[in-house]
Sequence to fold (221 residues):
Amino acid sequence: MRVLLIEDEPILGQAIRDHVVAAGHAVDWMQRLEDAEIALRSVDYALVLLDLHLPDGSGLDLLRAIRRRKDLRPVIILTARDQIRDRIDGLNAGADDYLVKPFDLDELTARIGAVARRAAANPNPLLTLGTLEIDQAARLVRRGGQRIELTQREWAVLDQLLRRPGAIVSRERIEEELYAFGSEIESNAVEVYVSRLRKKLGKDLIATQRGIGYRLIMEAA
Ligand code: CA
Fold:
């Protein structure tokens, strides 16, 4: 999976990155909040490792901001031994887990696996969106008991948006998902599938964030 590491201590950051890469994950390492924000908005990371004391601000503020925009990607905070308050604040701000420095790197990779599994398990795959009932496990969409047929690719686009309800999903991320079907795609493929989804599910369901991507409107449909 792709992991975002936000840590400004060079030796620790490098050790974490090397270890997590050796465990089979791709790691993007950022040392500043500003860079981390940009990365978070453009890449669909499966998990975030977040140091709280960064040169340009507090990791807690970043965590609160991403949860505020309903970005539910799992976050593990990395805190100093004497900062118990940090751990409490971190968990209250929506962190999924924490590790106290210095931590064992094998424990870190074990936690990454455990937190990601928990996040992916999605105990309730049923979602109601306005008048739409969506079963993410069965890949079914219904309105008033009536099934709405989606093609595999339409579902793939919708699924990307459903994974981060209300958050902006980049056009590139959706495009990557379409590429996963193996065949070549047209340069306007994302627009085409979004427009088909709007036709089938409701024209106000998906908002376009010009130049950035798309966002599911939770109150629509
Ligand atoms: Ca730090």
The pocket of calcium ion is lined by residues 8-9, 51, 53-54 (CB under 6 Å).
